[in-house]
Amino acid sequence: MQYSVCRVPWEHAAPLLKTVRERVFICEHRIPKRVEFDRKDRKAIHMLVCDDISQEPVATGRILPSGQIGRIAVIKEHRKQKLDKLVLAGLLRVAKDLNLKQVFIHSPLDAVDYFVKHDFYPVGAVFMEAGLPKQQMACATMDAAVKKCYLSH
């Protein structure tokens, strides 16, 4: 399978981004819609991954001007393709383009090891967010293992 990875603003791609996030976060993880979509979406830079054959959106993620990475979601049928790594690499590239020295993410506890493998480290104590325990993870953008990926704008 082949995929296109694009850096997109919310205003142009909201319906596609919402499609992925609704399937993953609202339907699968039962996150309330009012929690999943917030005002920060308009300020964020989003990554969108589409299947080249079907043209369907299959993965997304966002980065805020503060350096907070979040809303990384991959449609269940495409998770074996490791598209989360493409999304994360794209977001780290955006962070470097924005000259951010550090990025951070509020990681679910079961994903902490995943982020450690991608050069993130835990910061502070576990906390609750949207009814789920989370751990803040941070990474210096200079240390980030950014795989070569080609972004279209």
Structural description of this entry:
With 153 residues, this protein is α+β, with helices and mostly antiparallel strands. It has one domain: Aminopeptidase (3-Layer(aba) Sandwich). Helices cover 31% and strands 35% of the residues. The chain has five helices and seven strands; from the N terminus they run E-H-H-H-E-E-E-H-E-H-E-E. It has a seven-stranded mixed beta sheet, sandwiched between helices. A hairpin with a 4-residue loop joins strand 3 and strand 4. GO terms for molecular function: acyltransferase activity, transferring groups other than amino-acyl groups. Pfam families: Acetyltransf_10. InterPro entries: Acyl_CoA_acyltransferase (IPR016181), GNAT_dom (IPR000182).
Which features does this protein show?
single chain; 153 residues; alpha+beta; Aminopeptidase; 7-stranded mixed sheet; 31% helix; GNAT_dom; transferase
Short description, anyone?
The chain contains 5 helices and 7 strands. The chain is an alpha+beta fold and 153 residues long.
